[in-house]
Amino acid sequence: MRLTKSMLAAALTVLGAMSAPWISSEAARGKADNDTANRLNAAADVVSDMMGAPDKGIPKDLLDKAACVVVVPSVKKAAFVIGAKYGRGFIVCRNKSVRGWSAPGGVRIEGGSFGLQIGGSSTDVVMLLMNQSAIDKLLSSKFTIGADASAAAGPVGRTASAQTDAQLHAQLLTYSRAQGLFAGVSLDGATLRPDDDANKDMYGRAMSNRDIVLTNLQAPSTAARLIAELDKHSSRRANE
Fold first, then answer.
1. CB neighbour list of residue 24: distance below 8 Å, 6 or more residues apart
2. Is beta strand 172-178 parallel, antiparallel or unpaired with respect to 181-184?
3. Which of 5, 190, 208, 239 to pair with 142, CA 20 to 30 A apart?
């Protein structure tokens, strides 16, 4: 039986309506993947810059001592909530069985006082986790800097000789960068949570940050630059 023009048009309309959500979902997924890849590259740029300015960046001997690093590029101040700040980034930790760094896990950071001390509307945030206790707490579902682990503004310069007593005993050393300038900054009160959406983008399935950074999980290709930058400057094993 022949299809009339009206029947054919109706069939095409129904088909289009049925396929539209799939197309929209695929487009949204592709955008999310691109956003995560872009943040990984931005995080690699932050690491490169922070280690490329020895007199103004984060001391190499502190990076050598760090058990994990959190990098959150381009933290934004939210216009719809006064004083609120929000950013998405990554945590990487030392491998236990081989030299170098783990695959990255996604993190979200909210609140805190970062970005105001040195100006700028977009601020990069870097945290060095200095011991296992800080790692265990940060890999929980919610982590508050200053409450769940002691934190201090990290020193900048060629070496860590400028550390104060508070910095020497801190579980986290915290930094921010705006307009190209790195500075130690207090992040007390800021909270970190796992970024489950970013982890799905990177690994294709739901994964906890603990399962990502404490195992030998293969890092996605989009994280190659970030891992390479960290390996370039400090590639010891966790137990060395």
1. none
2. antiparallel
3. 239
- The neighbouring-strand residues paired with 153 are 174
- pLDDT tens sequence across 137-192: 889 888 888 888 888 888 787 666 656 665 677 889 888 887 677 777 778 888 99
- pTM summary value: 0.79
d(CA 83, CA 94): 34
From CA 102, how far away is CA 167, in angstroms rounded? Answer: 25
* Burial of 31 per CB tally in 10 Å (0-12, 13-18, 19+): exposed
User: Helix 224-233 and helix 5-52: axis angle, to 10°?
Assistant: 10
- Given a contact cutoff of 8 angstroms between Cβ atoms, the answer to whether 128 and 151 are in contact is no
Question: What is the structure's pLDDT at 166?
Answer: 55
Q: Cα–Cα distance between 232 and 189 in angstroms, integer?
A: 32
Using the predicted structure, report yes or no on whether residue 116 has a pLDDT greater than 70.
no
Select from 60, 73, 194 the least CA-distant residue to 124.
73
d(CA 118, CA 59): 19
Smallest Cα–Cα separation from 117: which of 70, 164, 175, 167?
A: 175
